[in-house]
Design goal:
Blueprint (H helix, E strand, L loop, with lengths): L3 E8 L5 H11 L17 H6 L6 E9 L2 E9 L7 H8 L4 E7 L6 H12 L3 E7 L10 H14 L7 E2 L8 H11 L18 E11 L3 E10 L1 E3 L3 E4 L5 E3 L2 E5 L3 E3 L2 E3 L3 E5 L13 E4 L23 E7 L5 H13 L5 E7 L3 E8 L2 H15 L3 E3 L6 E5 L2 E5 L11 E14 L3 H5 L8 E8 L2 E9 H15 L5 E11 L2 E8 L2 E2 L5 E4 L3 H15 L7 E7 L2 E8 L16 H21 L6 H7 L3
Parallel strand pairs: 1-3, 1-4, 4-5, 5-6
Antiparallel strand pairs: 2-3, 7-8, 7-16, 8-15, 9-14, 10-11, 10-16, 12-13, 12-15, 17-19, 17-20, 18-19, 21-22, 21-23, 23-25, 23-26, 24-25, 27-28, 27-29, 27-30, 30-31
Length: about 600
Amino acid sequence: METIRNFCIIAHIDHGKSTLADRLLEITGTVESRRMHAQYLDQLDLEQERGITIKMAPVRMSYTLGPIPYTLNLIDTPGHSDFAYEVSRSLNAVEGGILLVDATQGIQAQTLSNFRAAKAAGLTLIGAINKIDLFKDRNDHALAELQKEVAELLGIRPEDIFMVSGKTGEGVRELLDAVIRLVPPPKDANANSKFQISNLGRALIFDSFYDDHKGIVASVRVFEGAFEREDPIVLAATGAEVKIKEVGYFSPQPKAAQSIKKGEIGYVATGIKDTSKVKIGDTVLMIPKPYTLDPQTLALPGYREPNPVVFVSFYPEDADDYENLKRGLEKLHLNDSSLHIEPDQNEILGRGFKVGFLGKLHFEITAERLEREFDARVVSTFPSVVYKIVNKGKEEFITKPEDLPNEYDEIWEPLVRINILVPSNYLASVLSLQNKFRIEDLTTKTVVNSIDIEAIMPLSELVSDFDDQLKSATSGYASFSYEFLDYRKADVVKVDNFVASEIIPGLSRFFPRESVEREARKMVEKLKITLPKQQFPQALQAKISGKVIAREDIPAMRKELGNFGKNGGDRTRKMKLWQKQKKGKEKLKAMGKVRIAPEIFKELIKK
């Protein structure tokens, strides 16, 4: 294991991780130049188009330093805070990391967040400043200052921070050499193992994907033993027992091998078709039989279950596509274990699924992947968060306003701790958002040449349009990261929307009491604009516990009765027809029921 180095690249979004990975692939000859293209490890079309990494990507590289050949296992990670769970999984599979900082943007919020997570995981970090090709003078004062800032963050000398260009390759070879020198080789897990079992094999699943022929393929880091084809294995969490169909490593495409051994990163093809039996964060075990220990006692530590914070219901545009949507969600869940999926039903849109996400971008990316990869076009409801209901001492968690019980004592909303990193001259602009988004317990401290603002705010405010307004207030210079904190008793109310005295399922929402009338007014106005006229008048109402707080009316369609007086007609006849029409409309008003078409509903739930 002395010649193995496992490391990842961590950074804020758009700081050049994937471009740096491209140069590493070229220098090590892992990818032929004729096949090379920008963002090579970003395999999804969405990643290429948006220029961001969504899925972590492992790759094995071979590199010789001096007379010694080394095996380098790299994991390229996402940078957006919504995908922090992806980063946390990679940190548990490696011993070191490159902390990359954009020379033009400097240290950002997710830089700090990833740095703290990496230090907590015990990783050896190497600092690097990227995009120095944008500076003609390599001794530019701004570069020198940033070098000092990154060094201060890492607690090392400024001259130990590497200056690189992922675009031109400048300084990348020196950085790669430093990975070999500074990142420690994998430790011998057997040395400190409390389980003295001969031929024990343990590997951590940090990702997975589905293959039609090989079943579920688990990306693993081997900590003990070795795994070969036809070896019997058991999955600790689910107890599934199978024989391995294939083992190998990523180069970066899956490449079969004779075996994968301790200290290495590779894959295990399980042959399992049932997506519920393989969980990311689980441990693959090879235990010589007969064994008496419970497999769960042998599971590797260090992983936590992801906690979805935003819930959205997905319904197929065409009801016949329900099974296609179900298959698509199941396969996405394989390599994105942070998705929480359960069946759902809507009176207008039919059968669907309630899906939990780690944030708004996570939701948007998943919806696009469903359409592109599985041709599953969906209608999605308003994003909502998880509320805690307390009634007679018992707690219940709800993700949809419609699930709010009729009687309860208290309602608690989720809070997040948010860190905003912003240039000092934009501090006042950020503070101006404090009341609008119910930001509390705000503290500031100087981090190098920026202000790090730490505060607490309701998650529901964060997933509204906080990101857009923060960017607008700071001309795009602010960045933020967040983590779930706790629940707090809240003064929020549920608003139901009615059309012609009928509640519209899927349009109920929670709002803070102080802003509920304003938000209710917006909704009934949108209903008036969107809904078509009927033969009878429609009352549009927003209600709290049966009390109307906002109202609009859509008048009935009018039938023109002609100009009777023009050709000598009698106006009395016209008046009789008007009275008849009026009585008919009154009867329709009492009996009429509005049917909202799915396409109209889609317009209503658009922001």
